Amino acid sequence: MAEIIAILNQKGGCGKTTTAVNLSTAMALLGEKVLVIDMDPQANATTAFGVEKNEENSTYRVLTGEETLNDSIVSTDIKGLDLVPSHISLSGAEIELSKDIGFPFILKESMDGMTEPYDYILVDVPPSLGILTINALVAADSVIIPIQAEFYALEGMADLLDAMNLVENRLNSPSPIKGILITLYDSRTRLGRDVLQNVVQYFGDTEYIFKTTIPRNVKLAEAPSHGKPCVIYDEECIGSEAYKDLALEILELREAVAEENATDDTKYSVMEDNQ
After folding, report:
1. How far apart are CA 5 and CA 103, in angstroms?
2. 235-252 average pLDDT score
3. DSSP code of 124?
4. How would you class 99 by CB atoms within 10 Å of its CB: exposed for 0-12, middle for 13-18, buried for 19 or more?
5. Per-residue pLDDT averaged across 78-90, rounded?
6. How far apart are CA 260 and CA 250, in angstroms?
7. Strand 74-75 relative to strand 3-7: parallel, antiparallel, unpaired?
8. What is the CA radius of gyration of the chain?
9. d(CA 32, CA 244)
10. Who has the most CB within 10 Å: 139, 170, 255, 258?
């Protein structure tokens, strides 16, 4: 069963789309079957995969009910990685969707009819706390929050967490934080180290913070102009290596959780047998 991960932060420039594109690619290269859903009207993830922006196959048509999610999925040049592209028309979808009383559940319900077995579904969310973000949170099993290692990194974080709590409490749809990802990081600078320390203090639990950090790397910014994820464009640069490490960390985390659940099930079974 696919694990659905929303990648979001209402602040722009934090590496959200870069993370969605390169993490999904690194996962696919490790043999996972991955789907990326581009929920951002800017369609940067779509461009980064070298896929043409086309309203006929887009998240806009899925959310407005004009097309099924299955019909909107397109293949990329990367084996094991598919995409639901975005289009600028999605920018007007919030007004249209707000008229639907069940608008928070549209994306989630569209996934019910999926026939392709994916290991991971990554949702690239726009930098806002609107209807598109709410749809992603309702559909997601967990959330990755990229935070740039800059002075205003935690600005607006309280609003983001409040939005997540609102979705959980009012819509009965919890989306736990899978991890906080530090991006644009330079351990050589005092600013980078200070931001990392502030993030750890803010969340109060280092288990929320991924061990992997994403460094400042010009190749990460350069790759989209070539229509390729950086992990493909320059697989040996420090940015690509970091996303490969992140993919491994997430896969290992999933295996650890599965083993823990299996152990708990065994203990429960033994307790039942002894009663």
Report:
1. 19
2. 96
3. E
4. exposed
5. 94
6. 15
7. unpaired
8. 19
9. 13
10. 139
Q: Identify the pLDDT of residue 263.
A: 67
270: confidence class by pLDDT, cuts 50, 70, 90? low
Amino acid, single-letter form, for residue 156: G
Residue keyed to tokens 């990685």: 81
Q: Which residues contact 48 (CB under 8 A, 6 or more apart)?
A: 17, 18, 21, 223, 224, 227, 228, 229
Phi and psi, residue 115, nearest 5°:
-105, -20
Q: Which residues, including other chains, have CB under 8 Å from residue 189's CB and lie 6 or more apart? A: none
What percent of the chain stands above pLDDT 70? 95
Nearest CA to 134 out of 111, 158, 116, 160 is that of: 160
Residue among 88, 19, 92, 13 nearest 52 (CA): 88
Tell me, what DSSP letter sits at residue 12? T
Structure tokens at 236: 């040996």
Distance (Å, whole) CA 22 – CA 217: 13
